[in-house]
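INTERNAL TRANSFER SHEET
From: sequence group
To: structure group
Subject: Large ribosomal subunit protein bL33

Please process the attached sequence and return the structure record in the designated field. Keep the field labels unchanged so the import script can parse them.
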Amino acid sequence: MGKKVALACTECLSRNYSTNKNTSETKRLEVRKFCKRCGIYTLHRETK
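Return from structure group:
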């Protein structure tokens, strides 16, 4: 099982999603997801 990480919207910086990440990956996870606060699909990045 991987490490649990939070995904934050790059537009409004709200933390909308959480997911599991493979522990062998070193770079930050980036996914296009729907932001409930902005109302559009935006890029969500892994937060610390």
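Handover comment: The chain is about 0% helix and 50% strand. The two ends are 19 Å apart (CA to CA).
Transfer complete.
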